[in-house]
Sequence to fold (1022 residues):
Amino acid sequence: MAIKTQPVTVNLGPQHPSTHGVFRMRVMFDGEEIVDVEPIFGYLHRGSEKLAEERTYTQIVTLTDRMDYVSSMLNNHAYILTVEKLAGIEPSPRGVWLRMIASELQRIASHLVATGFLIQDLGALGTPLIYAMRERENILDLFEMICGARITNSYLRPGGVFMDAPEEFWPALDRGLDDIVRTIDDLETYLSGNEIIFSRTKGTAVLTPEQLINASITGPMLRASGVDWDLRHRAPYDYYDKVTFERILHTASDNYARYWVRVQEMRESVKIVKQCIEQIEPGPVRPSFDDVPRLIRPPAGDAYVGIEGSKGELGFYLVSDGGISPYRMHVRASSLINLTLLRDMLIGGQFGDLFVTFGSVDLNMGEVDR
Amino acid sequence: MGESLIANSLWRNIYCVLAGDSSVCADNGYSAGFLPADMAWLAFILTAAAIIGLWVNGILGGVIVLIWGERRLFGRFQSRTGPNRWGPWGTLTSVADAVKTMFKEDVVPKDADRILFNLAPIMIAAPALLVFSVIPFGIGTYVADLNVGVLFIMAITSLTTLAVLTAAWSSGNRIAILSALRSVALLISYEIPMALAVVGVIMLAGSMSLGDIIAAQGVPFILVQPLGFFVFFLAAMAEMARAPFDLTEAESELAAGYLNDYASMKFGLFFLAEFMAEISTSAIVTTLFLGGWRGFDPIPSHFWFGAKLIAVLFVIIWFRMTLPRLRVDQVLKFAWKGLFELTMINIVVTAILIAIWPQPTTGELWIMAAINWPVAIISIYLVSKLLGTPSYDKPQPDADAPVYPVASASIPASSVYSAESTTTSAPEGGN
Amino acid sequence: MIGLGLPRGFLITLKNFMRSPVTEQYPDRHVGLLGAAKEAGMNPFRFLVKKPTDSIKAIAGLATVPVAVKQAPRFRGNEFTFFEDRCTACASCAKYCPLGIIEIVSVPGKIDAQEGESYKLEVFDIDIGRCMFCGLCVEACPYDALHMGTSFERSKYVRDELIITKEELFDAPKRPSAWYRPQFEEKGFDPFKETINDHHDAGRHERPTDDDLKKKWVDER
Fold:
């Protein structure tokens, strides 16, 4: 007797404990197997790109903080590099080193969030999440020391950063880096060898490198499938050609590989910060106001700069018409581009893998919706 | 009165204080009680009520303390303090939770089957309380020492399955039934390993009565039956639907669950039943495998029972805090392909050992332990190979795989974007 | 599904169990007898004798001790510190604000106490209900009159009370944070322990004398 089954459509609505932010998915599944997925987003759209047309270039820095809210310094960094390219500003060296330190610390914080919440979705009831958040608290305390705010920093200005780090920052940074390495070791001992995590994440949601490249996906998702593409190596911006760090690649492009790549990238970021501390030289952190006025009027033209954000290539495209505000700003949001393959990853998989896969893509709704 | 009641020293003490029946209480030294001799039936009823009241209040009090203790322990495992605001060191938190739960609105869905909807929480709470009636909390402190005590426990804990299904079905909610079916699959799959794991203990003790099992533990059975303990512990955690088998409570999976439609105190009863199941499982593990109330002399037996109970509870909470969740097909695979075979191995080995040494003495128990431990380690290793666990290995990229993107002349490796920005004519007009 | 990786996870969790919790218990935390005695500055035995009710409360677990949150000196708090004697009503802060929440109305008038003597400030409203505390206004102020504050508990029950007026800013204790004010860090000023009472201490430069001003703006041009 043939059993007839009927697919069930479930709406995993915008309010859900496991979608990272307000994200809605309409999932059709047949028993335990997922048949169709329709992602619906846009619940966090705040019109950042339109608002940017009304604000001056320095005021937009505060706007970019809030796009990808777990990696504010990286957003600032990408935007400031674009402004510098558009206006032809030469940044001051100490500012560049400081913003590299800030960006790498922010990358560690963002990966801690991603890893913690991935394991939380796997059901570990919060224990690894709290260990990751404990380390992130240290990083956020460092940010508070250096720029007064923990999350929405607005630390960077065109030409460098806006204020030098205080005296107590450097010993705190050394201590913080040791703590971070110790926590990453703990997390790896706990999680990377855990057989339950193996069984849940190995072999699920596999993507081929061709699929990833055709969908313009970048970041840890791409490097987890063996493609050697990291913008800090391929197109070094700032002083990334003066620091050395390894390329983290994994060949099996499944959920475990993406988690593993992020954890190892955290170690590499710690190495970069240590090298920056060695190579930083005293000096002004931003050009004087005679060279770079407070209110910048870049010449008419456009510029695009993409940096290696924590989730992939984060790029800003600015069009200027000579005034104090840009004519148009567009953000190449890495999370949005990474989201396009969600359907292919989920179809054919089991329902239990839905949120694990979603967590391993590491989306941030602030960036998807801007 | 029946012989078993007379043998129960707790019953005898209370009854004799009340009734002073000389035929029963003479050897205790009670000659007259409070009530006249022809109202012995009243003394009977009052004693029964006293013991039941003592048990139920004790268990519920234990649940209140356990809720607080579990949340504090969660906090310490996660480097934070648990609840510590209400009352001294947070001890009144569970009372606050109970009051909050009672004040919520009791919503019954429109499509619900009202009788079954109201019956399901009772169906799940009552068996959880019943299990405690056969467990001895100290020397002579039990409600009843059934000679089929273990069978009674296994049978009563199976009623949970029915309650889960009733709860889901009567909610009239499609998603609740889906979730409950997974839960029922989990519960019935783990009943078999749980029941079979104690067969070894029963064979060693020679009877199913819990009092006899405690008396036979010259050496605690955790040492003599490591496989039995391992299987029973994991199967009991799965029966309680705790991590790593807690797919029913996974809010991150299906946002509903079979409990979604239960509102205030009905949900409170489900919650209470889960914690009572936790204490009862720890009590059963203590009795069957750790020696119950046996301990060293100057310290009373109740203390030993309590200490062992707390140790087992700590291990259960530790497991919950550490392990992520298994997917439903992995859970079922673990039961049928893992635990079931381990129980079969355990039964065969124990049967052979009992055939050699029936009625084992303490020394023979130690020899059995020495034989059982290597068997346990080897069989767990073989089963883990059977279940197929991948190991941690660093990835080895293929030596001759193409490097994406293919470096070509048009894309220089050092800089992807050309140094000069392309200038297009900007549109006229200001910003 | 079973393997040796699982016990390693257990050991890590147990190790963290032994560590003390990292919770910062704000605003107050419970203390026992020894903590209550230390808070009162007494020997525990003297505390038991002199304050019996307090010590019984402490033993019962009902005594609390206030806790302050660790903040960096550069903390961008939810309030502003304003030195009215330094303000010239140039409205740079209002122009720089991305949200446009500062409202300044000034009238010409000669007031001696102000550093800039030509404008009198009538209205200076900041709407902290809309403010995102980015600090661009503080960065813009050329006279170091406006500084970020350090507190973070500014909730009100009525939304209109969230607009800070000139009088509130004048009367509030002046605890400016060191955000974009390196002179406070050089002096070692701790906004959580002291206030700045003299507006001359708040600035980066000495006020230029008339000869300096003449030299810069007239002679050298």
